[in-house]
Structures are given as C-alpha cells and as structure tokens.
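Course assignment 3, question 2. Fill in each field.
Student: A.L.
Task: Predict the tertiary structure for the chain below.
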Amino acid sequence: MKKLNATVVAAIVMALPCLCLADDVKTHTETATSNRREYTIEMGGTMDGVNTRTPIGYGVWSQAFEPNVSLRMENVGETDVVNPWVIVNGKRNWRTMQDIVAEATAGCKTEKERAVAIWLHEINHRFHWTTGDNENNDPVKVLNIFGYTLCGNDAHVISDLWRTAGFKIRRGYPQGHVTAEAFYDGRYHLLDGDESIICLLRDNETIADEAEVVRDHDLMKRTHTYGILAGDDRRTDEFSSSLCVYEGHREGEHRSYGGHTMHFTLRPGEALEWRWDNVGKMYNRWEGYEVKKYIMDRVCNGRMTYTPKLPEAAKQNGTVWKIQSPYVIIGGTIKATLVRPSNDAACKLLLSFDEKQWTEIAAADGPEVEKTIPLDAEIAKPGPARYFYFVKIEATGDAGVKGIAFDTIVQMAPLSLPALEVGKNTVAFVSESTGPQQVRLTHIWRESSASRPPVAPPKPVFPADGASVDRTQFAFQWEEPADPDGNKIVDYHVRLSNRADMLWHLSPNFNKLISKTADKGKAQYTILFRGLLNPGQTYYWRVRACDEKGVWGPWSAVWSFKPGGPGVPVNVRLSRPDPEKRTATLSWQPNPQGSKAVKYKIYGSDEKGFTISDAPYEIVYRSIQGQTNVAGKRDMKEMPANFACETEGTPLAVIGPDLKFPNANKCYYRVAAVDEKGVESGPSDYATIDRPFIHTLPPPAPKAGEKWAYQVKAISSLGDLRCRTFVPGVYSYNAGFWDKDEVRYYLYAAPAWLAIDETTGLIIGSPSEKDAGKHNFLVYADIPKVGCNSQAITLEVKQ
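Answer field:
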C-alpha cells in the first residue's frame, strides 16, 4: 500500500464530484498470474459505504460518504483472460442467476427460508425506477448494472430468481401493479419485491397470498407499505390494499427475461474499471420522465479501456475491433492517430452495432491527425441497449492508423461493486483461464475519520431482556447510546423477528426507521396496532443508532420478550339466518394462546375488510390519479365508530329486527377479546352473511280505510376501496367504493292496493272495505349478480 502523489490525488478528486472529500487517498496494487489470487487490504478510518448508507427500500436510498474510488482490472499479459472477476469479502458475486440465488440463500435450511431470503435480497438491492424498456427485467442486469426496478420489472426479476431456486411460482393479479407469488409449505405466498410488502394472516406467522388480501383488505391496511424509507401513512396503506381486487381464477406466471451473465474476456491491453463516481451518464428509455439528480446519484459510471496492438499499415484495411462489455454501454470516446502520407490515399474509421450497417466517424484529413471521437450520440440513438460495438478501418494506399485507444463508459449499480469496508478485507481475483495470465489489480480508496459511529444501544428499557409484557401493543424503549464524538443521535433502526437468528423481520411493521414514525426523535418505537404479535410467543429485537453526520453504529445485542394479553378469537362465524324471525347469530371460539378472555367486543360494518374502531375514524373514500400521471388526490371520509357491543359469552345475536345496539344488522363482523386486566386482543377475521338479507318484520295489519306502511330493510355491502380496470378519463389508480351494493325491492302476488318503492323498500297502501281478509304475498330484495332474499308476508285486513 502506498500514498498517491499530489497530482494523482487532485485528479481523483476532480473526477469524483459526487463523493465527499476524505482525509487520505490510498492505493493498493496486486498482480495475478493464475486464475485465483487472494490477498487482504486493510482500510483505515471510521467511515465506509455500509455504515453511512440508509437502509434500502422502495424509495431512493442516501449515503453520507463513499470511500471507494475505483478498482481497475487490467490485462497486462500476452494472453486472453476468460471471465475474470473480483470478489471482496465473499459478497456480490452475482455473475449469473445461480450465483445470486446461492449468495441469497446461503445457510437457509427450509423452503420458506429460501423463498424469503430471495425476497429480502431483492428488496435490499434495488429502488423504484426503471430503464423504460425490458432491460431491467433480467435479474443479473438489475443487480449489477441498474440497481432499480418498477413493479413490472421486479415481478419478472424475483420470478426468475425463485424459478432458479426451484420454486413453483404464480403471477399476481393486482390492479395497476405487478407482483408474483412463491409456492412453499403447500400454498402460495405473496412477497412483493417492489413495495417491500408481506402481509401476515391473523396467526402472525403465515404470509398471505394475494387472494387472501383481496378478501380482507385489513391484512394490508395493518401492514406498513412502500418499504423502510417510507413514513407511516394510513392513506398509503389503504391505497395499497385497493390494488388487490381480482377474485377470479389464478394461474400462469411471468415470463422469463433471464439469461444475461457478467462473463467476458479481457484481452491484452484491455481493462475493466469499477468506479464509484458518476459523470452524468445513465441508460434511460423512459420517455417523458426527467431523471432527477437523486436518481443519477445512485448510478455509477465505470469504464472499459482497450489499447490494441496494430498491424502494419499495409495490412490494416478491413481490421475490425469488437468492444464488448457485460455492463450496458452508455458512452465513450475513441482516440486515434490517423495517417495519410499522400493525398491519393485515404483512411477512415467506421462504427457499427451489427457489422452490417456502418457509419463513418472519423477520416484522415492531413498527413498525421490525432482525433478524439465521441461515441455518445451514436450510442444514444434509438435501438436496443448496447453491450458491444464494432469499429473498422478502411484504408487505401499508404494510409492507416498509427495508434488507437478505446474508452467506453458503462453503467454500474453501486451496491454491486467490489467495495472495501473499514477493517480487514479479503479480496479474491478469479478467472476461468487455465494457462498463464497477468492481470494487474489497482484499488484506490479514501479513508476518513471525520466521524466515529455511535456505539450500540446498551440495553433495553422496555421490555427488559427476557421479560414478559401483558399486551401486544406497547412502545419499545431502549437506552440512548453514547456517540464518541458527541454528535446527536438523529435516528434509530429497529427490527423484530420471531427468529433468534434475526434472519428476517417478522413483517414490514417491525423493520422501521424511527424518523419515519410518530416516535421521531425518541429512543422508542410504538406498535401501531393490537394483535400484530402472538401472546405467549417469544420474539427477538435489536436496535442500531445513526448520528447527525449520517453514520450508523452497530446493532445492539439481540433481546427477547414475550407479549401477553388474550389471543385473537378464532372460528368467527355467522349462523344461517332464520327466515321467520329474520335473525342471525355470531359465534366464535376463544384463542388458546394468551390470557383468558372475560368478555368480548363486537364490531360491525358494511365495509368489506373494515378496520375496527371504537371512535369515528377516517378512511380513503376515493383516490384518483389523473391523466398527467401525478400524485392522486385522496378524498377522505369520516366513518362512524364500528363498535357494536360487549358480551361475556358466545354466541351473540347481531342480526334481527329488535336489536338496539349500534352497528347491529351489518354485513361484516369482527370480534376482539378482553382479559380481566382490560387488555384487548387484536381483531379477528371477519364473518359475513349472504346478502341481501331482510332483517325487519312488518308491522300489524291495517284496518280497512287506514294507511299501512312497511319499511323493508336489507343488509347490503358498501364494498371496499378498490381500483377498477377502467374508469373514463383516469388511469387505473382510481380507487373508490365502486362496488357498493344497489338493492332493488319488488313485490310478488301482492294486492293491488300495495305499492313498493324499488330503491328505498318502502311499502305503502290503503285497503278498502272490499279488501278485508287475508292477503299472502312476497317481498324481494335483490342485488344484481350478488343474490336475492325474499320475505313471506301475511296481512289480514280487518273491517
């Protein structure tokens, strides 16, 4: 290792406008003469890319400092080197889909572990952006070249990785969104790689499939959506649920776009340079969308350089060079010296992308002319992504090329690069060449001790390590750690798992940045909802801190606890309605987990997938995205409390003509348990009744000459917030309560003196003396394409 001279340091700093200045620039050079060479590099300082980078999520991540400048791998020998690569600390060897899966699933023992590990690998190495074409549908390209996907890209990527790992997969059917599901443990599971979402069933263990979220939107509404970099936002969670609407048959899978590899051959005089800077170039086919600086900052511009040996001038005509890169080519230049000793000779350089159509890019216009030929404009022309190009010499007479050098700019995903970290780094050069080779490897990095990381939070305040808590909703608290430089702690990352090895977080609710929650500025995290944890089950959690300089400290020790309180009631059902009494009974069973329930709280609503609430609350009632594709307007609507009543026993009649408590005669019901301490469980799954159902009884029969009226009331659904396939004038992000039941009322075989309002269900009539006697007829409540219910009525008109 040695320090670079002042001139080189200045050149490096000038070339790296996107990186922070550091204390010291270092270099390390090795020469590999076989197909494997291992060596170590010690990086000093206190800051590196890992401990100054935010977690990765749907949003664009940020980073306070990047120590790595470049790693140049140059063939300085006389033979080709096949498929060379550099692997630092055993990470980021992502040259094939098999390599990616192997790294992602290392140490996994079960199918669930492998499926979730692939999902975690995906969400931890990309953000939400796209190339605008199919380029970032390929897993190898996404991880090595781009580092970003939209949902449509991401579903293809994670499908290919699951397929490579041997999983059966199924495409999702959300509206305005694209997802995929993996099959393990005898069922499919929705793991959304774009929005970083897994939704747990009420058992808080099983990852739901999409159909289960379609059935009960509350599974999504109680889940943090859009990744760790997104703040808590009930509106966003509800809108995410509105995309899950498809209720039909599910089959098929996303097609494969995999097949790209990072394999290539390094010829004598050729080099690949991994770089962590950006010179303002980026592959983009997403027309109409401006590439913002924060997007460009998450792209690195590497280089491939090549200085070939030239044949003598008399043999140069027709010479063709192919410049090929495993990274997408986004620009470059050619420097060449063209010689034309006599006027009756000629020398041209031509460019092609297919060796069929050639474009002149330079010509000798003097005896000896040095040319710098930019390629950016040609490479940027409409067409497929460029991974190679051809340059040909056309020369006559004694003209030719005296020297030529190719400098090709490529795009690289920063999280894929062979990065050094603070401390000892094990570096391995590998290739598939079996004969003699000579590859020079030059690392350049910068070391900084501008800020030391805060120490790990020393111990939990609540719950204490190994303690039990009497409920499932509370605030985690921990001691604020010291910062060795006296910097202010500005954020915490808290993670909870049902596994002692912390292999993955239990759900997105338990992988949070405190700065994105209502607890911002505090050493605590408050669980948003009851029932997200199981009473009596052991859970594990840990915390790390970030200071005001953007430096993250190490994770705390793993602490454990057991939540308490009653478990969520199970087997919630509504009985078959009594057609005479017009009643139905709700029943459930106590959960064997947790403390004993002494009473139960009943909640009723006409909203499918409703969220329980004891007080009035707001829901997203409409969210429409306009033609300009800007953020949609979200109209809120206040809903009344959906609490119905409390009861000590089970079952309970909740539908019937004589019930007086609020929210009786609703379409959907949930139950929560309460123990002797007043601790409440989370809400159960919902029970529903076939609709419509008439829940009223007619009043006494009229006397002749008197008016008679009967208000028929039938249970119907408000539906749930959902996006539709098409609404005129708006995009598919058009969430609303589109599927509200429209009940129509009809009479059958009724006497002529009775009439019914089809929309309100009000029956009115005035029988005359001649109408005295019994009258038998039917009243129908009908919801088209949903169901129909009838009520038999006997009226005896008295004189």
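Instructor remarks: Confidence is low (pLDDT under 50) at residues 1-22, 626-631. The two ends are 113 Å apart (CA to CA).
Grade: pending
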